[in-house]
Design a protein that fits this description.
The complex is a heterodimer of chains A (about 550) and B (about 160). Chain A has about 550 residues and is an alpha/beta fold. Chain A contains 22 helices and 20 strands.
Chain lengths: ~550, ~160
């Protein structure tokens, strides 16, 4: 036991958790902590807006597999973090957010820069807590990292009143957390695995759907082994992209509203659907009655509350996906698999792929987005990391930009946060400075957090931003085009800003290629120079993302053109 | 099919936990029919009893979502056949008419209730029983003239060896 200030205890607690990088914006209510960080080796990556800091921590977590940490001052600093907290939480990303708070004696008085961040963040976090004394800080920090990282990962917020940072108390650093109600049960039930294996062994038309939980559990290898053993096509959710390499012969692509024809049709015709670490959200299932209508659904998930939430399952395996898949693999090895129709079933994959391929449009004066995505992939090394913004650019990336390994492709799946991709790319770069990181953006999304260019340049975290620039809020425009009689309202962005000049204003490189060759050259130069580069790619404002399942329709109702 | 169910659970007895529980119900769109809370001596825990109007699937979700809360230690759906349930009612009735006072006493006695306060124009009665019995009692005394009433919400314990 030793007496020290809460701020010092806080920084020591972070160091004990192995925190190397903290993303944030300082301010009045975190000044004591900021001062302690002056003496620490922890890297403080300074964002220019707290939302950026929260997404950076998120990107850092997704790329590294470790907890991402961010900090902001009280009041507006805290509220600005909320979008990032909610984004990470719904995508089950381990993120810990620290907020300054007015001194305990002033809480509830509507003091300057006071907000009730515990109340505000309650439904967007896995857990949150306000510290009431300096001596509570070490346990609060340890608990935050523990809860965030274990079980189904998620966001945790710790609120730190300023007096608790300033005052000194006897401090103990605990080795264990103490929760009576938080049990992490990773071990799947043996009988549940028996049932799942039996069902799988009888499948004639099996499909595996892999979600983000496979990546979180590090279970890609087991998933591939199972797919190979069963000769089962694998579709992924947006969060699961990368669990199986895009060039694997069993890979059927994304399933859902913007799923591939082959993935959506295979799910529609499957007799057994094994869903691993996925929530089966509305964007993945489309109309529920048409989601795997012939399939017995087996659900592997670490979160019991996800089972039967949206889709009724026949059997479930609750626990860690890696352990569950290992258990099922072990059981299947001793069973006779129903392989009689596998050849026919696999041929279907090819048939559907051909039947539902969107017609390739010729390049007009504009470049075509799918073409740009393929060229981007060609120009990047295989181990490059990609984040996406949200909207058309996100779906083009999901459909046409191949991912070869887990933790190489990142997107805001659940919340769909425009402006997420760029700061997340910066966080990913902080975690993986050894590989190029590219943000696949649209002009609308990039505009929402473009001020983070300053962080890229000043903190030497070079990121490549590919702006698919259609001068539109493209996805909303697509819906207005397809479902609202082309009545464009508040989607046209005009000609501002000039992204090349914007990049240059921040000290980054800006280029505007006019052809695919120029684009590929620009990407390669950005990779080679390792400089933050904004590549402004003009695309056709009229271009739609296809395939698409219209809202309210089933997975089989696939549109491949307007 | 939707029906009234009772869920009992133990939570860490700390500031803000009641807020988080009610916030969960609000956020997920579950309707609380009644809620009662009390600390359990020397344990640092509080016991909450919630009755909800929900179908089977929603009820499962409520139990699972509650179980997930870090501050919730234990959750259980109570089997109505193996559970003792009680709710307390305080009701103030207008008894300025002597006949009304007479009638009130009759109903209170029939429900094994108590008279807690008698004023010239009104009285306060206490009745304890299962929620349905409380509903019955209220219907019986309604014609007399209810000035004000307050119900505690359901509290419940399982019978025999069963426990939370």
């Amino acid at each position: 036991m030793v007496e020290m200030s809460g701020a010092k205890a806080f920084v020591k607690a972070l160091e004990r958790e192995g925190v190397e990088t903290l993303f944030g914006v300082t301010g009045g209510a975190v000044l004591p902590i900021t001062d302690e960080l002056y003496h620490s080796d922890i890297r403080f990556v300074m964002a220019r807006h707290e939302q950026g800091a929260s997404h950076m921590a998120d990107g850092y977590a997704r790329a590294s597999g470790r907890v991402g940490a961010c900090i902001a001052t009280s009041g507006p600093g805290a509220t600005n973090l909320v979008t990032g907290i909610a984004t990470a939480n719904i995508d089950s990303v381990p993120l810990v957010a620290f907020t300054g708070q007015v001194p305990t004696g002033m809480i509830g008085t509507d003091a300057f820069q006071e907000v009730d961040i515990i109340g505000i963040s309650a439904s967007a976090t896995k857990y949150n807590v306000q510290v009431r004394r300096p001596s509570e800080i070490p346990l609060a920090v340890k608990s935050a990292f523990y809860v965030s990282y274990t079980g189904r990962q998620g966001a945790v917020l710790v609120d730190l009143p300023k007096d608790c940072q300033v005052e000194s108390e006897e401090i103990v650093f605990p080795d264990e957390v103490a929760f009576r109600g938080y049990n992490v049960n990773l071990e799947p039930d043996s009988r549940e695995m028996d049932w799942a294996a039996t069902l799988l062994s009888k499948a004639r038309r099996p499909v595996i759907m892999a979600g983000g939980g496979v990546i979180a559990a590090g279970a890609s290898e087991e998933l591939m082994r199972l797919a190979d053993m069963m000769v089962a096509p694998v579709t992924t959710t947006l969060m699961g992209k990368g669990t199986i390499s895009s060039d694997h012969p069993l890979f059927a692509g994304l399933c859902g509203m913007h799923g591939t024809g082959e993935a959506n049709m295979l799910v529609t015709e499957a007799d057994v659907l094994l869903v691993v670490g996925a929530r089966m959200s509305d964007r993945t299932t489309a109309r529920l009655e048409d989601f795997g209508p012939e399939a017995k659904v087996i659900h592997i998930d670490i979160d019991r509350s996800e089972v039967d939430k949206n889709v009724e399952t026949v059997t479930r395996v609750i626990g860690d996906a890696k352990l569950a898949l290992q258990g099922i693999l072990g059981r299947l090895e001793g069973m006779a698999l129903n392989r009689t129709t596998n050849g026919v079933w696999l041929k279907k994959l090819e048939e559907f792929r051909k039947a539902y391929a969107p017609p390739e449009l010729p390049s007009n004066p504009h470049l075509r987005a799918p073409e740009v995505m393929r060229a981007l992939r060609r120009s990047l090394p295989r181990d490059a990391l990609a984040t996406t913004e949200v909207g058309q650019c996100q779906m083009w990336a999901a459909l046409y930009f191949d991912a070869y390994a887990p933790r190489t492709f990142f997107s805001s799946g659940g919340l769909g946060t425009m402006g997420w991709g760029f700061p997340a790319a910066i966080g990913a770069k902080a975690a993986r400075p050894d590989v190029p990181v590219v943000d696949i953006a649209g002009d609308g999304s990039f505009g929402m957090t473009e001020n983070n260019l300053a962080t890229c340049v000043e903190e030497d975290l070079p990121v490549i931003v590919v702006v698919l620039n259609n001068r539109m809020l493209g996805m909303v425009a697509q819906w207005q085009r397809l479902f609202y009689g082309r009545r464009y309202k508040v989607v046209q962005l005009g000609n501002s800003p000039n992204f090349v000049k914007l990049a240059e204003a921040y000290g980054a490189v800006g280029v505007r290629p006019e052809t695919i060759e120029e684009f590929e050259r620009a990407v390669k130069e950005a990779v080679d120079s390792n400089l933050t580069t904004v590549i402004d790619v003009p695309i056709d404002p009229e271009e739609n993302v296809f395939p698409m399942v219209p809202p309210g329709r089933g997975l089989r109702d696939i549109l491949v053109e307007a | 099919m939707s029906q009234i169910s009772t869920i009992a659970f133990l939570v860490e007895n700390r500031p803000g936990v009641l807020f988080k529980v009610s916030n969960l119900f609000r956020r997920r769109g579950y309707n609380i029919e009644s809620i009662s809370v009390g600390a359990i001596e020397d344990s640092g825990l509080a016991r909450m009893t919630v009755t909800v109007d929900a179908d089977r699937r929603a009820l499962n979700q409520i139990v699972e979502q509650l179980s997930k809360m870090v501050e919730v230690v234990k959750v259980k759906r109570l089997d109505p056949n193996r559970t003792t349930m009680r709710e307390m009612l305080l009701v103030k009735l207008n008894t300025s008419d002597p006949m009304a006072r007479e009638e009130t006493l009759r109903h209170v006695n029939a429900f094994h209730g108590l008279i807690l306060d008698i004023e010239p124009d009104n009285l306060i009665a206490e009745v304890t029983g299962e929620p349905d019995a409380i509903d019955d009692f209220i219907e019986k005394v309604r014609p007399i003239g209810i000035e004000e009433l307050s119900r505690t919400g359901v509290t419940a314990l399982e019978k025999g060896r069963l426990k939370l």
